[in-house]
Specification:
Elements (H helix, E strand, L loop, with lengths): L1 H22 L5 E11 L2 H11 L4 E6 L5 E9 L2 E7 L7 E9 L2 H10 L8 E2 L5 E6 L5 E6 L5 H16 L2
Parallel strand pairs: 1-4, 5-8
Antiparallel strand pairs: 1-5, 2-3, 3-4, 6-7, 7-8
Length: 168
């Protein structure tokens, strides 16, 4: 039951954030991309979202030791749940949400110009360009610029291809 509440909370965050983006003056902010969920039992959480709820696994990212660091589950064409293990810095529950931006440098400049602390960009293991902003409550908003070779872009292309094939 806790998983259902986490999922519904994530959906609510996504809907509210997507609406806020649509109504904002934030040029270059494209869409909500994902909700990050930390779990004390990653395998059980993956099973719940893929087998019980039926969302397909989009991709996995391994750490330097070859262990699963995070798993993306695809909810729709370009909406995901990012599942990862909880730890001391990241307790179980919703850890963050991700917003796609057209140009990371422009987005960082815009928000720094408004007085926000925005982390310098970096390239992730998924080949996405990432940065972070924390709100007044400490909630992390992850900014993503998704080059064509990123795991996110590849998963979106596969979904679109499979959807198109289903309509033929």
């Amino acid at each position: 039951m806790r998983g259902v509440y986490l999922f519904l909370s994530g959906v609510l965050v996504a809907v509210v954030t997507q609406f806020a983006i649509a109504q904002s003056q934030n040029q270059g902010v494209v869409r909500m991309n994902h909700v990050g969920i930390s779990s004390s039992n990653l395998e059980e959480t993956i099973s719940y979202y893929t087998e019980t709820l039926g969302f397909p696994e989009a991709f996995r990212v391994a750490n330097d030791q070859g262990e699963v660091a995070l798993v993306y589950v695809q909810v729709s064409t370009n909406s995901f749940l990012e599942l990862q293990r909880s730890n001391e810095q990241r307790p179980p529950g919703i850890s963050h949400f991700g917003i796609v931006v057209e140009d990371m440098d422009d987005a960082i400049e815009m928000w720094r110009g408004r007085g926000l602390e925005v982390e310098d960009p970096r390239v992730s293991g998924t080949k996405a360009v990432l940065s972070n902003i924390y709100d007044a409550n400490g909630i992390r908003m992850e900014l993503l610029e998704l080059p064509a070779g990123s795991a996110h872009a590849q998963a979106t292309a596969r979904w679109r291809s499979q959807s198109a094939a289903a309509w033929r």
